[in-house]
Specification:
153 residues; alpha+beta; 2 domains; 4-stranded mixed β-sheet; 4 strands; Alpha-Beta Plaits; 18% strand
């Protein structure tokens, strides 16, 4: 082989090697982009509204508190049928559902309100509220009539 042929062969090998590395980098970049695009949103939070919702939304601590309230009221009251919470309003609303017929059972209504509020305070939920935020405990009867409404700060 001549000197020129050896040099050309060497250049071809270098070009092939560089193109091979470049191809590998391009393939990896495409793979990462596709993985990121089609991955579940829990893997990444590129959307600012999702990030804001995670940082600002206090639904997770409240849902744990609501679970505690549900468990306790099931054990303590025969009239308790369920619980609902609405966190997209001010005041934050906790609705205690009962099978009570009317306002004649004020003692039961007061007991449900007090137990609910005590559990909220025990779970330190009022500390998570901002200055202007409140929470409201609503005791709802059998006919979807509100038997009691109390707002707490």
């Amino acid at each position: 082989m001549t000197k020129r042929r050896i040099q050309q062969h060497y250049r071809e090998q270098l070009e092939y090697k560089n193109n091979k590395n470049l191809s590998w980098i391009i393939i990896m970049a495409i793979f990462l982009c596709l993985t990121y695009t089609f991955a579940p949103t829990s893997w990444h939070t590129s959307n600012p509204s999702v990030t804001k919702r995670i940082l600002v939304n206090s639904e997770a601590p409240w849902s744990m508190t609501v679970t505690d309230i549900d468990k306790t009221l099931k054990e303590t009251s025969i009239h308790y049928t369920g619980i609902t919470f609405i966190n997209n309003s001010n005041p934050f609303k906790i609705i205690i559902k009962t099978n009570l017929q009317s306002k004649l059972s004020n003692e039961e209504v007061e007991m449900l309100t007090n137990i609910t509020n005590e559990l909220i305070i025990m779970n330190k939920q009022p500390l998570l509220l901002h200055d202007d935020e409140k929470y409201e405990i609503i005791i709802r009867g059998n006919d979807k009539i509100d038997l009691s409404r109390k707002v707490f700060f």
